[in-house]
Write a structure and sequence with these properties.
Layout (H helix, E strand, L loop, with lengths): L28 E5 L10 E3 L2 H8 L8 H11 L4 E5 L16 E5 L5 E7 L10 E13 L10 E3 L11 E6 L2 E11 L2 E4 L14 E12 L4 E7 L19 E5 L14 E5 L12 H5 L22 E3 L2 H8 L6 H17 L4 E5 L6 H8 L7 E5 L2 E5 L2 E5 L2 H14 L9 E2 L5 E2 L5 H9 L2 E7 L3 E5 L13 H17 L10 H20 L8 H4 E4 L7 H5 L6 E4 L17 H8 L1
Parallel strand pairs: 1-3, 1-15, 15-16, 16-17, 17-22
Antiparallel strand pairs: 2-3, 4-5, 5-13, 6-11, 6-14, 7-10, 8-9, 8-11, 9-10, 11-12, 18-19, 18-21, 20-23, 22-23, 24-25
């Protein structure tokens, strides 16, 4: 701070500091899949298989999500996200995802509370709810209270709070009301007294609440001292912030205070829950985007830019068991939608599976359906041990784990290939060298068996026909850099568009790219060979500046992976060597 020598007004220049650019975390996948329970249309962070079971339940039979997640965690100590897929729209007689529910009634017989399973599914039909009335406090008046007053002086206000139901009783005179405010031993009421209550009678003040107990065979939750009145700190809907089993809605009927609480009952079942998985269709995976409050399926992911890998193992489970997947064209439509979503985002990449049971020729035909640098295909399916039995599963979960492991160990610029696929015991198709050549030349990445080196991911090509975007690591590196620059230059919006800003941006981006070159992300003997940044009057002519646009040209030289290593061997004949010595 400047030295202040005399009273007055001083201006001190405080330079605006901007955080330097940096690559964000990569290798964070989202798994779209079918589960027993869990939130719909919200990707949930998962750090372990145990947490997955805690949130989504045990994996369903004939699905691949559980095996895919196990394959991910077998290959990396990291985290991912899970997005539950279910059918949520349909006729009343169709299997649509619904939450089990129980409606509680008050003393007047009106519906007063709705208790619903926290997530849709038949799992909620196993929940049982119990309501018990509880007495919080019984105290007495220490000062007379006249009719029309709203304030009571009590011996102790312990257990009393706003929204507490109280009974005021002196002999045969009784009034039920609700506490409006408590300050030390002074209790303010929501309505005036209808009769006088002398302190010498004595007059008792009893506070009532109710307890709600919900549980199934695995877990029980108990919520005590609840109130149906919204101004209470124990308002019943606050249960929703802490419960893992239920959501409660207060229906708020007009009723006398003494009748407002739910009637006690024991172990009543929640009913009406359904899974919505018997007849999944392509639209359930693709979903829709109708605005921030109405997104489903893949379209939910537009709100989560930090998720950079997209995996859909249960697309193949739906294809195998659902009548609404009429042909492989429906599977293709979902994969095309996933690719389109990745192409609209800055840094997202899709890891796609081949349909089950296909041979090399069918895989080649399937690959020809796509042309994008934002996706890659992997073949064949993997054989894993699942519950002690061998089972073929899509490779995308294991591949996502290899991506994440490579990113953490080496960086996004390193091709995620020649890496061991952990958690795999065999391949569904054993590939010969001629098969590998056909598949790889077509842009299909294979998992290959090396007797001494294990099963390895053998390929790092995208589905693009453009040679510039042939490699997975090139596409993902450029995407990660673009995302970092976009996130780190938001401060420049609405700044004066002129040479000072152009130079500042150029310095900032150049320093970032120089750091990446030093780390080996960019290639080139000199900085000029590794990258260039141009932001000047040439890229920003006056007519463009007048439209409020600032343009910066950036060129990158990203490392390409080695695919073919050729050794040239020549034999030196002995007689030739002898003649040279003579």
């Amino acid at each position: 701070m400047a030295e202040l020598r005399a009273p007055g007004v001083y201006f001190v220049t405080d330079e605006q500091r901007v955080a330097p650019l940096s690559l964000g975390q990569t290798g964070v996948p989202v798994f779209l899949g079918i589960t027993r329970r869990g939130p719909l249309d919200v990707p949930v962070r998962i750090d372990s298989e145990a947490q997955f079971v805690e949130v989504f339940g045990e994996p369903l039979p004939d699905t691949y999500l559980g095996a895919a997640l196990r394959g991910f965690f077998d290959n990396v100590d990291g985290h991912c996200h899970v997005l539950r897929v279910a059918r949520v729209e349909g006729r009343e007689d169709e299997d649509v995802a619904r939450s089990a529910e129980l409606v509680l009634h008050d003393g007047a017989g009106n519906p007063c509370l709705s208790v619903r399973a926290r997530d849709p599914g038949t799992w909620g039909n196993g929940l049982r709810a119990t309501v018990q009335t509880s007495v919080l406090q019984r105290t007495f008046l220490t000062r007379d209270a006249d009719a029309g007053e709203r304030v009571l002086q009590v011996k102790s206000a312990h257990g009393l709070a706003a929204g507490t139901l109280v009974q005021i009783q002196a002999g045969d005179v009784t009034q039920w009301t609700v506490v409006a405010r408590v300050q030390e031993k002074t209790v303010s009421l929501a309505e005036p007294l209808r009769a006088p209550f002398p302190s010498a009678a004595p007059t008792y003040v009893t506070a009532f609440a109710f307890d709600l107990v919900v549980g199934d065979l695995e877990r029980t939750e108990r919520f005590e001292a609840l109130s149906v009145f919204g101004n209470s700190p124990r308002f019943v809907e606050r249960v929703n912030d802490i419960s893992r089993l239920i959501k409660v809605t207060a229906l708020r009927p007009e009723v006398l205070p003494e009748l407002a609480q739910p009637v006690p009952f024991e172990a009543a079942p929640l009913v009406g829950g359904s899974d919505g998985i018997d007849n999944l269709g392509p639209d359930d995976f693709i979903g829709y985007d109708r605005g921030p409050a109405s997104r489903r399926g893949l379209m939910c992911l537009v709100e989560y830019p930090d998720i950079d890998l997209l995996v859909m193992p249960d697309l193949m489970a739906a294809w195998q068991k659902s009548e609404r997947f009429r042909s492989l064209r429906d599977v293709e439509a979902v994969q095309e939608a996933a690719i389109a979503l990745c192409e609209r985002s800055a840094n997202r990449f899709a890891i796609l599976d081949m349909p089950p049971g296909g041979d090399v020729q069918e895989s080649l035909r399937w690959r020809r359906q796509f042309d994008s640098s934002r996706a890659a295909l992997y073949f064949p399916w993997l054989v894993v041990l699942d519950g002690g039995r061998r089972r073929a599963v899509p490779p995308s979960g294991h591949v996502a784990g290899i991506f994440a492991r490579s990113d953490r160990g080496h960086g996004v610029h390193k091709a995620p290939a020649n890496e061991v696929a952990e958690g795999v015991v065999d391949l569904s198709v054993l590939l010969q060298d001629q098969h590998l050549a056909l598949l790889y030349e077509s842009g299909i990445n294979c998992i290959r068996s090396f007797s001494a080196r294990g099963l390895r991911l053998w390929g790092a090509r995208t589905l693009s026909s453009d040679p510039e975007w042939r490699y997975v690591n090139v596409r993902r590196t450029v995407s990660a850099i673009a995302q970092a620059i976009e996130n780190g230059t938001q401060w420049a919006v609405f700044e004066p568009n002129g040479p000072d800003l152009w130079k500042r941006l150029s310095r900032m981006v150049s320093a970032f790219l120089m750091e990446l070159r030093d780390l080996g992300v960019l290639t080139g003997a000199t900085p000029e060979e590794a990258f260039f940044v141009q932001c000047d009057k040439e890229t920003n002519p006056p007519e463009q500046v007048s439209r409020g646009m600032l343009v910066t040209r950036i060129g990158l030289a990203v490392s390409r992976p080695v695919e073919f290593i050729v050794f040239r061997l020549a034999q030196r004949l002995e007689n030739e060597a002898q003649s040279m010595e003579d």
